[in-house]
Specification:
This protein is mainly alpha-helical. Helices cover 61% and strands 0% of the residues. It has one domain. The radius of gyration is 15 Å and the shape is elongated.
């Protein structure tokens, strides 16, 4: 499965839409691909912003991550909790930072 930009949707993202004991996701391939594209774009933007925040404010990685985490897991983030966790993991991967 690929999103609209042609990027393959990783199994870790598809798994967000799998119910325990089921073999078929609870959303269509198109819906999952669309959400993946949004979440991947969000992770990429946050990674870029994290570097800017650290440089501009001169704060620690931990402080940057705490600010990012509060925003990502906030009510108005635009992602569901399970998607936020995936974006968080992807953000850390992109930054090469540990939590």
């Amino acid at each position: 499965m690929s999103d609209e930009s042609g990027v393959p949707v990783p199994q870790s993202f598809v798994a967000l839409y799998m119910e325990p004991g089921r073999v078929k996701p609870r959303a269509s391939h198109a819906q999952i691909a669309e959400r993946h594209e949004f979440c991947e774009d969000l992770a990429q933007l946050l990674a870029q912003r994290a570097g800017e925040i650290r440089a501009d404010l001169g704060i620690t990685r931990q402080d940057v991550l705490e600010r990012m985490r509060r925003g990502l897991f906030g009510d108005d983030s635009g992602v569901e909790v399970h998607e936020a966790q995936w974006v968080w993991t992807r953000l850390l991967e992109l930054l090469g930072w540990s939590p």
